[in-house]
Amino acid sequence: MRSAGVIMNDLADQSFDRQITRTKTRPLASGDLHPIQALLCLGGLLVLAVGLLAFLNRLTIWLSPIALGLAAFYPFTKRFFHVPQFFLGLAFGWGTVMAWAATRNQVELSAWLLFAATICWALAYDTIYALQDQNDDIRVGVKSSAIFFGSHVWVAVGIIEILMVVFLGVAGWLEHLNLAFYGGLAGLAGFLSQQVWRLRTEVNPSESFAMFKQHVGVGLVILGGIWLGTL
Predict the structure, then answer these.
(1) Which of 35, 64, 160, 203 could hold 207 in an S-S bridge, CB 3.0 to 4.6 Å?
(2) Does 22 score more than 90 pLDDT?
(3) Of 167, 192, 170, 184, which is closest to residue 226 (Cα–Cα)?
(4) Which residue, 131, 108, 130, 111, is CA-closest to 119?
(5) What is the 3-state secondary structure (H, E, C) of 35-90?
């Protein structure tokens, strides 16, 4: 579904992508790939996703159309909503809800807190990612949180990441995770703080992309903390 979402995004954005320096070489934007080919690949991925659903419980199956709807809707929010990264967070975070439903056959408060944390996380890291394209996005009329927050982007990212850590912490408390989880969360908060501090001054595109990639490590710390927290 992640790959399917990328295809839907590139199909919706191909006219914008041709006008943006970083994205103009994408296969659809450059003409290397025909939209029909992309649609065939998308169809194949969706068939595989539906096949996987056959092995899951009824609740997860009922939740799945929301995942598809969010993935399809997100690319179009860049045209009318000033913080489209919020919808990206909804699309990515819904996988948390579905995974919880698949393993527990219910969706408890902890799952919704993880969902909220994932929304905040995506909003934070994709705002950093969007800093690469600010000038091009303004020129072609694409909306993004990086443009919306402007010179206060560091404040916004800081607040969003505080909320993320709080949501994770409360979810861990509800699930009775041990101190290892909170130790990881404290270290994570420290790392995120230095990113926010760096955002107080202008960052160039290569720096923003490097900061964005650091969130792979953020995800690993969260995952490792959850695992260790259950021991």
Answers:
(1) 203
(2) no
(3) 184
(4) 111
(5) HHHHHHHHHHHHHHHHHHHCCCCHHHHHHHHHHHHHHHHHHHHCCCCCCCHHHHHH
pLDDT of residue 86: 96
Angle at which helices 109-130 and 205-213 pack, to 10 degrees? Answer: 160
Joined tokens for residue 111: 């799952």
Task: Give residue 207's domain range.
Answer: 58-74+81-229
Question: How many CB atoms lie under 10 A from the CB of residue 166?
Answer: 16
pTM of the model: 0.92
Residues 127 and 212 in one domain: yes
pLDDT over 90 at 2, yes or no:
no
* Residues 169 and 101 reside in one and the same domain: yes
Do 38 and 66 sit in the same domain of this protein? no
As a residue count, the chain comes to 231
Q: From CA 74, how far away is CA 178, in angstroms rounded? A: 36
Owner of token pair 């998308």: 42
Give the tokens for residue 106: 């219910």
Q: What's the chain's average pLDDT?
A: 94
Residues in Cβ contact with 82 at an 8 Å cutoff, skipping those fewer than 6 apart: 143, 145, 147, 148
Phi-psi label, residue 56: left if phi above 0, alpha if psi -120 to 50, beta otherwise: beta
